[in-house]
Amino acid sequence: MSLMPKHSRNIPKNTSKTNSKTIPLRQWCFFASLTIALLSGCQDKSSSSPTAVPTVSTKPTVAALTKDPEGILERVKSRGKLICGVNGKLLGFSYVDEKGDWSGLDVDFCRAIAAAVLGDAKAVEFKPLLAKDRFTSIQNGEVDILMRNTTRTLTRDVTPNIAFAPTTFFDGQGIMIRIGGAKTAASPSSSPSPTTTASPSPTASPSATPSSASSPEPDKANKSDSKSDRQTPKTSEELAIALKELTGKKICVETGINTSNLESAFKEANIEIFPVILPDLESVVSTYSKGDCEAISSEKSQLAAWRSKLPRPADHKILDLSLSKEPLSPALVGNDDRWRDVVTWVVYATFYAEELGINMENYTIFKDTKNPDVSKFLGTSDSLGIELGLAPDWTTQILKQVGSYSDIYSRNLVPLDIPRGLNRTWKQGGLLYSMPFR
Fold first, then answer.
1. Comparing 72-170+327-428 with 173-324, is the CATH topology the same?
2. For residue 390, which phi and psi values (nearest 5 degrees)?
3. Which residues of the chain are modeled with pLDDT < 70?
4. CATH number for the domain running over 173-324
5. Model pLDDT for residues 24-50, shown as the tens digit of each residue
6. Which sequence spans correspond to the domains of the chain?
7. SS3 assignment, position 232
8. Residues 120-153: pLDDT tens digits?
9. Taking the domain 72-170+327-428, which CATH number applies?
10. For residues 46-80, b (16+ Cβ closer than 10 Å) or e, as one string?
């Protein structure tokens, strides 16, 4: 009987102890190994996800690389023509007549680009644009280049996806007045004003000086040009003296920046005028033409274009002064460096050709020259055009079909009686300066 209690007492105790100690240990080992496996699995997944992200991000890079050869230069070449945004109504810069023929300085620079890129200056589609649409047309890819009497400014330069090429015409806001027989039309409005009695005296003294200064050498355009430049007001004091002849006069001007420039200039000179502020350029010209204003203020290039359309252009004089700086520059898309290089160096090519004395009439004479600068420029010794993605004779095509800057200016702006002024080469005291062709 003593064995039964021992057996019954020992067996249950031993089995319960072994079970209570052995089972949790196994479970702990199992769960520990499972946890390690899960953690390692999570680490694999997290480490694999970053590798997946670069593979996705590299796809746009590959796509971008495939699109790089399809920039504007290649697009123009494949299309076979250049789409050029212009004004279309500004004589001397971009103007289309009733026959559909285009002319102007901006038009010729469009043709120069087409000659350089396509070898054909006529391969241009001119697209007239309103001022409010010109920059969006570039950004949307509607035009390849904008040649629309556009002033380069800081705010425009930092506009998203907009860039500028070298200035093709240095302009400025000026003033045009009536002279000659048209004075009688303006006399009723000026007679009541006490200031008009003094206005003939300052008018007489400056006007006599240019006429006597220019009369000795009427046939020498360059010398008379330099004389007129010396008479151009260079300081605020000189400008104030030049503005005195406008004391008490009504001056038509468009609302906006032109009005601000006009009022600021006369306020600084302490001269009283009566600005007639109108909503648009058409109203300005119409009001002036009717005789309701004695003077008109706008960019001098526009004044010259308007004067040419008046019945008696000689009765209107553009004063030799500037109220603002208006560097008119080509505008283009800002994310295509190669295309900007092409446009930039086409502009420089017209500058440099004039520096070298090469034009439409004599370019063939320079083909066999031993001058290294000329041969390099014309592509007979070095193929600089290949660096731009153009043919070796790209500059020759510009000269052959469009000409140098002098050719372009003489063809379009000399008939409007616009002196070269700042738009001469740097060798002649102007601002036209080409970067080196090397």
1. yes
2. -115, 170
3. 1-69, 180-236, 238
4. 3.40.190.10
5. 545 544 455 544 444 444 444 333 333
6. 72-170+327-428, 173-324
7. coil
8. 999 999 999 998 999 999 999 999 999 999 999 9
9. 3.40.190.10
10. eeeeeeeeeeeeeeeeeeeeeeeeebbbeebeeee
